[in-house]
Design goal:
alpha/beta; seven-stranded mixed β-sheet; six-stranded mixed β-sheet; 29 helices
Length: 866
Amino acid sequence: MQNLTPMMQQYLEIKEKVKDAILFFRLGDFYEMFFDDAIIASKELEIALTGRDCGLDERAPMCGVPYHSANTYISKLIEKGYKVAICEQVEDPKLAKGIVKREITRIITPGTFIDENQFDNKKNNYVCCIIKNNNFYGIAFCDISTGELLATEFYEDKSLLLNEIGKFNPKEILIDDQDVTNVEIIKSNYNIFIQKIGKVSINETEGIILELIKKEPYGLSITLKICLSTLLKYLHETQKISLDFINNISIYNIQSFMGIDINTKRNLELVENLTTHSKKHSLLDILDNAKTAMGSRLIRKWLEQPLVDVIEINKRLEAVEELYKNFGLLNSITELLSNIYDIERLCSKFAYLSINARDLNLLKKSIYNLPELKRLLKSCNSKLLKLIAEDLDTLEDIYQLIDNSIIEQPPISIKEGGIIKDGFNKDIDYLRNISTNSKQMLASYEEQEKAKTGIKNLKVGYNKVFGYYIEVTKSNLNLVPDTYIRKQTISNGERYITEDLKKIENDIVNADSKLIDLEYQIFCSIRDDINDNLERIQKTVKCISILDALCSFAEISIRNRYIKPNVNLLDRIYIKNGRHPVVEEMIGIENFIPNDTDIDEENNRVIIITGPNMAGKSTYMRQVALIVIMAQIGCFVPATEATIGIVDKIFSRIGASDNITYGQSTFMVEMSEVANILKNATHKSLIIFDEVGRGTSTYDGLSIAWSVVEYVANKYKIGAKTLFATHYHELTELEEKLNGVKNYRVEVKEEGKNIIFLRKIVRGGSDSSYGIHVARIAGIPEEVLERAEEILIKLEEADINRKDVTKKIKKEIKRELQDQIDLFNYKKEDIIEKIKSLDIMNLTPLQALYILSELKNQVLSINERI
């Protein structure tokens, strides 16, 4: 360190505080990086690596990026999983004695990067904190770009933890550095930046929460206090700002929302499609017609957290219905909403002191629409719209303040002047007048002094030595007032100065710099006044967001011919002419074949659906789930009639995938998902199973599928409403065996060797999967298909023979068992229990033969003993 230059010593001292971050070190108009940081950054950002003399034998590796475009480079580093520490010059270089003082002003991480030009303004950018305390998880989410803070706790459950993470999709997760297990669990399911940190001690929690967001943590559990204080402390230490703009802690109960696990969210393509992982062709893409970014973010949130409170759901539905039926009102409201900017994210700029005059004008333009919006809403009848009308603060005082003070087209910078209107501040007006009209001011002063003294040839002049002066000829010296101060004698008279002229001179010489400084001070004062009203603004933001989401639902419902569902507490899902909202958008509503659905707790609890691939089984099942979700977020649905009994959770097991990194085969993944469903579903749940058991041998798969149907159909086990698509036609026998199980099939029309998919779901089972027909449509060579048909015939003949043999064996087993009962009455109860423990009709031939052999041996053994 002793040999290093003073500046490099300063750099290393600061770098020591942020060892795990890339340090952006401000030097003039650039952020420079040195040593290892420079080597990493030059590679990741693809910028030139140079060197700088640092006092050592070798030059220090160095690279840099321009100050004005730094966010672009920071964004790239953040995306690659790095943290960036910003080190600024905190004193004027002109006034510095020695090395300019520098400090870290902010540490940027994936969850705290808020540049509006670098991320999707229709998505929240959450940082998440997870704390495990005893047997409970505390989990909190904060979006510092909006000031939103949410938290919940629940009994230790890994699947719930993963579901909550998936629901909010945070960019960064803070986790206790002692909690190694959960780090691995999260990493195996999500590609999210994980930051290990030390959790706050119990004794510190209340003080930290109160100090940082000025909120008393009343009623919070110890787990939540630790979680929230740990998160807030991290944000304060990294952002170096006041967190006053976080005005509310929203504590939610996961039971208040429909449970949608991460697999179901992906399978149903709620917010992104499975192929491109983009919003396009997802349910969110269909439902989000919001006019503001705030509304779009709320729709996403609603979609990932459907309600289970029937009263709250119907409040939304009634509001959508009122807008749906009054197109004039809807059109007027959406037109006003179209002129409202992202006020929610403007609010966080006050905390970061990054708001500029243009931002204030955007706020003003947004507020301009609020009085008319409130007037329109006052005429509404639905409870939710009336509540919005009551809560909507029109913020007219803030509008007036900005309108009176900020010019219409201000510059981006707030430190270069030219932002405050004429007439708002007399000192600014005076300095601005001097800056632009100094000659007129001097001429005016000259005339003023002539009139006052009576010296007609008095004149105001200027030179570099004495500055501004008043010159009086010798003949008029007797008229000079006592307030004049003599400065210089000249050949034909005297030159004087006055206090007023000194002030004018000082103002003229320093007018521009004084004007810039004063405008900045006045702007900061305006900014602080608005910041004092931030809670009012945020309350209005909430009203606008909800209204925008409701209007979006109404517009989409009109355009796509959706109807209002009847949402109630009955255990029935009845849908008449239901349609898949995304598929119909892609192919056209006129080309989509609608289908009915009727599932209830008693007679139609489990629907077994058979039919060929590509016939529409998966589309049908998904559309049922999507219609239920749409209904429970308060949106109209694609059908001609719909009655939706509240569903507490939706599960789906669809498709084939593996997780090679963690040693899980396709079948292992499938079984893990099935296990999760069977453990967590209730009788109020909706389950979608698509081809369970296909990842293993036929008999194993059929046995598992059969058993799963029995389990979910059993009212004393789960009794959930279930759609079960399968190619195991043997499962159709369950309609006769199990109460509540019904068979349905996808209709097809055969024309020779070809089939036509009719896309219609009808009662009854199918005895063929039409696999060869589908292969023909896919373009498999005809020679291969002909050979496949020959093999199929032989297999079917063998299967018929096998079934006949199996039936004979099973009859013999029954006979042997009955013989035991008849011969050995004292063993009757044991034998009856054995009969009950065997599901004879579901045994494979090998299993049946084995049991028959064992029974015969048992009979022989008993005979010998007798």
